[in-house]
Amino acid sequence: MAISCQPRPATEAANPAARSTRVAPDAQLRETRWVPRQIGSKVITVPANTREPFLLLRADGTAEGNGSCNRFRGNFFTETPGALQFSPLTSTRMACPTLATEEEFNRALAQSQTYRISGDTLRLFDATNAPLARLEAVYLR
Q: Which CATH number applies to 27-138?
């Protein structure tokens, strides 16, 4: 049995950068773990011994997540393409060092009217199309 190596297409062999310009598909809005990286103009950092905040939008229309110290749950609505609104979210009420960031995250979700996904980035906007938050898809292994 003879095994042969297939050469790379001439354009790929001549230009290695062509291989790295492939664009990944956009992440799915639902059933993706979204982690806030920026809320308003504030870059989100996670202090030691705290949980990373996240948002998970389920296929059944429920929204759940963690603001960093408190879990939250509610519903979300996407009645037209690009629209994203949340019902009032219920939350536990524990105090923690990242409570201010958690409150900003909850306000951004409450003000959300529209969204855009580009690759692994979800951006939320208010009714005037002002940016509220930038979240990143984090895939569990």
A: 2.40.128.270
